[in-house]
Structures are given as C-alpha cells and as structure tokens.
Amino acid sequence: MIHEALDTGLGDADDDDFDGVDESRDSELPENRYLDRELSWLAFNQRVLELAEDPHLPALERANFLAIFGSNLDEFFMVRVAGLKRRIVTGLAVPTNVGRAPQDVLADISQEAHTLQMRHADAWRNLVRPALADAGIDVVRWDELSDPDRARLYEYFQTQVFPVLMPLAVDPAHPFPYISGLSLNLAIRIRNAKTGRQEFARLKVPPMLPRFVEVLREGDRVRYLPLEDLISNNLADLFPGMEILDHHAFRLTRNEDMVIEEDETENLIQALEAELMRRRFGPPIRLEIADDMDELTLKLLVDELGITTQEVYRLPAPLDLRGLFDLARIERPDLHYAAHVPTTAAAFQPGDNNERVDFFTAIRKADVLVHHPYESFATSVQAFLEQAAKDPHVLAIKQTLYRTSGDSPIVQALIDAAEAGKQVLALVEVKARFDEANNIVWARKLEKAGVHVVYGLVGLKTHCKLALVIRQEDNVLRHYSHVGTGNYNPKTSRIYEDFGLFTVDNQVGRDLTRLFNELSGYAIEKKFKRLLVAPLHLRKGLVRLIDKERTNALAGRPSGIRIKVNSMVDEQIIDALYRASQAGVPVDVWVRGICSLRPGVAGMSENITVRSILGRYLEHSRLFCFENDGDPQVYIGSADMMHRNLDRRVEALVRIVEPTQIADLGSLFSEALSEETSSWWLGSDGKWTRHNTDAEGKPLEDLQDKTMAALRRQRRARARAIR
Known about the structure:
The protein is α/β, with parallel strands linked by helices.
C-alpha cells in the first residue's frame, strides 16, 4: 500500500521523478481527460487515513496507519513538492498532466495538505487516542500526571534525557542554528534574570530516545508521555538562572529531491555520496508548528528559515505522529491484526517423508508462481538462492538488487556463491530513493567478496526484479529463472503483496541472459520471447495488446482488459484504454496509489472501472491480463504505468503460460472487483468513495483476509491428504 521509512510500513516509495507529458495526445479525446497526479496522490494518502479512522480495525493498527500517513506525506513534500519548487525557482518547465500552471498546482497541494493534516491530527485526538485508552494504553499530558508520576519521570529525565540535550542559543554571538529535516524541535523564549533581556533558544528533541516515555505500567494498563512534553516541563534545568517565558514545538521539512547528471560524472558512487551530503542541507519546504505558537516566535522562524505563509502548517500537538510507529509495536495481540504465518508454496513443500525440497527438481516439473506474503519468501526465493549458492553444479548466478539490506540472507547467498568459486553478477541500483547510502555500503561488501557488481546503465534506473541461475546438468546448461514484482528484501516481503515466477523455460532463460548482458555490458538487445522490457519495448507492447482487445471488440470477439498497478499515469497507456473502452472493451483497473485515468465518462470511459484496495499488506504486484479472444495473455512484473517506469527505467514483465496460474490470477482479480469485497471506487469527478459495508450496514469481505483463509484451507487439505 504505502511507504514507511523504517521498512516496517506499507509502502514502497520508489523514487519519484517528474513525469513529462506525452506530446502525441489523441486529438479525438477530450482535453480534460486526465486527473491531476499530485492531488490523486493526496487522495491516496487520504485512503490511508480512512483506515486509521475505521473503528472496525484493531486500535494499534489504526495508530500504525496514522504513522504511515505522516511518513507518506513527509516523503511527498521532500520529493514531489520539493521538485516542483526547484523547477519553478530554476526556470525549468514543470510538466503537469492537466496543463495547469505550477504555482496553481502548489496552491492546490497546500490547500489539500492543510485539510488532510488537520484531519490527521483530529483522528489522533478524537478517534485513535480514545480507542487506545479504552484498551488500556493511555497517552497523557504532563498536567494529567500525579506528583509521584512526575517524580519518576524527572529521575528518567535527569539520567536518560538531560545528558544528550543540546540547547542552542540565538544571539549576536550565536547565529540561528541549522535545523535538520524532519527533526522535532522546541523554540524557547527566555529572559535573563539579571539583565531582563529576552533571548531565543532552539532545542532538538533527541531522535534516538523513545518518542513516548512509559509513565507507569499496571497489568494491561500502561501510560505514556510524549518525550517533548517531558523536556518542555523540565526546561529550568537547561537554563538555570533564566526565566522560561514560552516554548513551542516545531518541525521542518527540507527539499530532499536528488539530481545527478550521470553522463557528466566519471564516478557515479562518488557523485552520489556528494549529493547525499548536499541533500541534508536542502532548502526548507514546510514548517509545522504547534497551534499554541505565538506570532513573535513564528515570525522569527519564518524569517530565519525563509518560509512562506503558505508553507506553514499550524497543528494541534503532538507534532510528528510518525512516533506512533513505536506505540504500534506494543505486544498486545488483541489490538493487532490476527497473526498470519505464511505457508510454503505447494511445489516447494517437503515430501511425505519430510525430506528437504530440491528446488531445481521442483521447478523442472512446472513453472511455480508464488504469492507473497501469503506464501513464504524465506522458503521460496531465499531458499532457492541459498541452495544455488551451495550447489556444486551451479556455475553462475545473476541478480538485480533494488532495495534490500546489507544483512540480508539474499546478499549473503551471493557472497557465499562467490566465495565458492561461482560466477556471480549483482546489478545494484544505488539510486533507489532514500536507500542510496545503504545500497552503496552493501554493494562494496559484495565487491570485497568477489561478486561482480554493476551499477546499471547511464540515465536509467534498474528496477526489474530478476534472478538467473545457470546450472550444469548432464552436460547441458539449464537456466533457472525468477521474475518478480517485488524487491529481494526479506523484511518487506512479509508486508508487501507480490508475485514471483520460477521457471526453467529456455525462452525465459535466454531472455534473461540477453537482458543481463545488456545491463552489464554493451549489448543492445531488441528481441525477447516471453518478456516485455522497458524502456524500448514495454509501452509499445502493452499498447499493442490493448489495441488488439479493441480490434476484437469491434469484430464481436471476446475482449477484456484487467490491469493491477501501483500508479496509472502514463498518457499513452491511458489513451489506449480510453479507445478500448469506446470500442466496448470492459476495462478493470486495480490501482493502489495515483490514478490519472478518469473512469465512467460517457463516450470516453464508461466501460472502465477503477478500484483501490488498501489493508494490512501493501498491494504491490503488477498484473496485466488480456482476454485475447479466449486465449488469455497474462503478464506479471515490476513496471507501473508511469513515464519514469516506461522511459527511464529498466523494467521487465514476464508472460504467464500455465493455464491454472492464469485462472488463479483471474480469480483473484474477480474477487478484488466484486461488489462484495471492501474497496474504494473512483468516480469520474476524481473522488474516491469507500465501499466497505453492504446495504444493511454489514462489513464487506476483506480481500486479503479471504486470500489468507483460502491458503489455510489448502494447507489443512494437504495435511489431511498426508495423514
């Protein structure tokens, strides 16, 4: 669903470059046929907020969604809003898919963001905080504490907090300090008791300490105090001999948009490290202040930071509700989603004698399609690569890595393979947004182990999810391939919904061999059999498939299009879908986030339906299904329908050929689009409406719950069969 910076939330925040507008628009379609992508993203984050507001969800999950909303919005400002402002300031063109002036776009963003942030604060104060209190988790204010409580907290303050605080004065000898992005701060006005002179100081709330301090635990009841409240009420210890006049919380968001001219640099890693350092000092783009801040303090901050009034967000305390991620980790199973233990895909389960599975034997029998997190990543992708690293018959492993971690078992498997003398190629995308520094560290770790590390193609990000294992069997080299929709990351695989295909098919193996050669060398491959590859072929291939459905519909043959993506923005794809709809093709779009397509418009898109599903897992897979006159063509892969994916990234879709797998994917789509399934519906006016109850007010079925229940039934049936 959504991005969360701590790698525990619902969102994959792939880097968000600015999309240009395709110049070859269809003149027969109306001008206002696209929804604004920025406002569509804010509408997506509103859907996240609606989950936090939902009283049917467990209380700690609601707190988690509040934190996710805040994290998402931070990234939106740091990248999208920052990029808009940078282009305006530097005089660059600011393309929008609705043809509006960039200043108007920023004004609309500001207005909608202000509304959403107030709603976010209100959801905490009036909905989630009371729900937590009813369940025995109180987040209290200082004035609600008893004297014994304050005494205990003062001791904690003295021993754990006071030593790491760093108050910074602002006077002629001390210039206004640097305020780091996303830090929570206190603006403090004090008076010198001897001179009567008023002074200003800034105090950063230490981010390494728990944001919510435990006050007292009695059985299942526990109380917490925000850390900034504890500090605010003990400021006298920091300023002895001074009178504390006022103190207010504030928080700054900085521009963290990154620009690297790859064709003008000799060393991408060095250039990236320099840009990461520069990013820390990007210009301010948003100032959040507590609603009790006086005008004098506000004026000082605005003047010193160079912030406009449009960029000031006055909000009820507490600011920065990302701190709720800490509360959401409280071990109260009754306040969380019911635990789900991923099952092992049927093809990879141990045999009747519980012997270890041989992945190569299993994959040779038939293509295997796994569905994470319902089916385990650890017992499929990870175990496959670990076996390949140890197998003496494996000669080479080639893999793309976009987001993972240095301690990942995937990285360790590649290191083990290299140390065992195998040829290992890792294509590492060091420009993955907000993971750049981590990726540089573990890429160097791979290099030291003897892995051939490649950083991709100039001007393109490598976003495809591919692994290729070359194994010698009976004097023949076999290609064992994995093509996925999600990252090779064991952590996010537990919360991101994704598909992965394992196959020994020679066509796929040769396709991947050619593609890896193109990525690591100078080959330019133009022909693939079971893959559609960006940037050269993917958009063209999809448009051809869409137009074929249009032709079938006009000829009276069976037709239909079903697409599941994270974002639907690309104008050529959208226009092709509009033309298909005009020909009578039923088009279903299942989108998690941004959607610029306008459904339900008479004469243009009345045959198009758009749905969105958000929940405990982030819907991350991309599926493309075409009826094809009764011979369905189905693809899975890494590409969203955005310019960055189709023009500036290496992406890959693989065609699914097993009839049972095609049927299973079709059934999943039918369940998602069913009126009995809880979802959001997009109207022609760009408004999303949640449909989560039936006509009698009963909750509709949750798609993810149904998917988990189906797997549990399969697991029980298999257990009975074994007995």
